[in-house]
Amino acid sequence: MKLLRGRAGFLLVAASLLIVQTPLAAQNINHKLTPYLKSGNLPALAAAVVEQGTITEFGVVGTRKMGAEIPVTIHDKFHLGSDGKAMTATIAAMMIEEGKLKWDSTLEDVFPELKDTMAPGVGKVTLEELLSHTSGMRADDENLMQLLKDSFDVDGDLNDLRYWLLKESVKLPLETKPSTAWKYNNRGYTIAGAMIERVSGKAWDELIVERIFEPFQLTTAGLGTQSTLGKIDAPLGHVVQKDGQVKAYMAGPNADNPMILGPAGCLHLSILDLATWAGWNAGNGTRPPCNIVKPETVKKIHTPVFTIKGDKPARPGTPPNGKYAHGWGWLTVDWAPYPLLYHAGSNGKNLAQIWIDKEKDIAIVMMTNIGGIQADEALRELAKELYLNAVARY
């Protein structure tokens, strides 16, 4: 998810976590990660491997700010980006299991008061189409950029702002007939968030804390930039500028996308907490916490909806060719015998990747505090190395 424009050590967790266990036998793989700092021109890099619900390898190397000696730690918070979309899809699934929504709930079902203002066909757009990027609604274009700027003048909480963005967006004609084309759409995920907010009576920002962060014990997870104002207390996001120089971004309005886009991906957490989330998905939701959604619902969230056939390379942090489900994609790579469940996230200044082999119950998570193609390629090479090593142990 890239929307912004212009704008040492480690501690082994000996205690068993509720969802993913981190035993004393887990290997520190800092030595494996260090070479990728140079090949990817990365300030910092964190990674972990989860096998059958147990973290077997993990590590973190580098600095919070390029050019400075501020070593990262295993509990440092990295930006998650669009990997948070799967969490939004899971909250939507909770609403479905509770009878508050359906996969085929439409915009006019949930917002009947706006029906007369909706452009032709928009009212019939479903929750599933929004979560799978097949709604046909306008995506990350100049109109959305203008709405994001205008939202700062709108009064109210974030849920009020998302309802306002929804009201403005449903007036726009569809670009394609729903379910007939795929286009990565952060506007669509924000609107799906508004649907969740309407039926739950709570802001998405409150729900993700109550429904995901707390039950999964993601103690480092939070919303917005990973560092706090005026401090380098987490890995800062970095951008490679046109002149080749790398710029670090302190916390502030230009360090992340506007929080109105929270349901599309404005989150942060540590690599161990990301491993917990990924390991639960690798196990199809059969491990604690078992009261999130049913295993068959997790399977539905992971089930492909549309096959992506793009003729251009995908931006780092957005899905490449493959199949797309609900906040998850399925990607074929030459180093795995079958497609892997995959998603990446980036605000242009950070990058995260999740790779899952559901057949072998293996999850690999990686995060760095810089965006761009070089970083994306480095993480993919690391994923290959970690995956082949994990399969060899299987």
TrEMBL record:
<keyword id="KW-0732">Signal</keyword>
<dbReference type="GO" id="GO:0016020">
    <property type="term" value="C:membrane"/>
</dbReference>
<keyword id="KW-0378">Hydrolase</keyword>
<dbReference type="GO" id="GO:0009002">
    <property type="term" value="F:serine-type D-Ala-D-Ala carboxypeptidase activity"/>
</dbReference>
<keyword id="KW-0645">Protease</keyword>
<dbReference type="InterPro" id="IPR050491">
    <property type="entry name" value="AmpC-like"/>
</dbReference>
<feature type="domain" description="Beta-lactamase-related">
    <location>
        <begin position="31"/>
        <end position="382"/>
    </location>
</feature>
<dbReference type="InterPro" id="IPR001466">
    <property type="entry name" value="Beta-lactam-related"/>
</dbReference>
<feature type="signal peptide">
    <location>
        <begin position="1"/>
        <end position="25"/>
    </location>
</feature>
<keyword id="KW-0472">Membrane</keyword>
<protein>
    <submittedName>
        <fullName>D-alanyl-D-alanine carboxypeptidase</fullName>
        <ecNumber>3.4.16.4</ecNumber>
    </submittedName>
</protein>
<keyword id="KW-0121">Carboxypeptidase</keyword>
<dbReference type="Pfam" id="PF00144">
    <property type="entry name" value="Beta-lactamase"/>
</dbReference>
<dbReference type="InterPro" id="IPR012338">
    <property type="entry name" value="Beta-lactam/transpept-like"/>
</dbReference>
